[in-house]
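This section describes the prediction task in plain terms. A model, or a person checking by hand, is given the sequence of a single protein chain and must write out its three-dimensional structure as a string of tokens. No templates, partner chains or ligands are provided. The sample shown here is typical of the held-out split.
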Amino acid sequence: MVFSGWQELLDVAETEAKVITISRNYLASLEPMEVAHLPERCKPRKLLTSGDVGAYALDLVREHGDEMDDAVPLVHRMAAFFAHANLRLSQILAKANDDDREVRERA
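The expected answer:
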């Protein structure tokens, strides 16, 4: 079952590592029967970097077709979660870049 607070957890995450951990926990929360119905490209995978989260989000958003009829609602929920995770990672990395720029300008 999907916990309703996943999006909120992402919103308050302040580091790349925290977003990746939340994303891993989200995947771990999926029921085995749900995962069994997912198309191969959408099955849970290792998430080690922000690039892994982004690539998975893209695969989920791109997935469509008759072979996933039973999985459509889950794929849509997963795509929404991982698109949000990817957005949050972008926000965190942009802030880090801004902070780095400010430090360089002060030096």
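For orientation: The first helix runs from residue 6 to 12.
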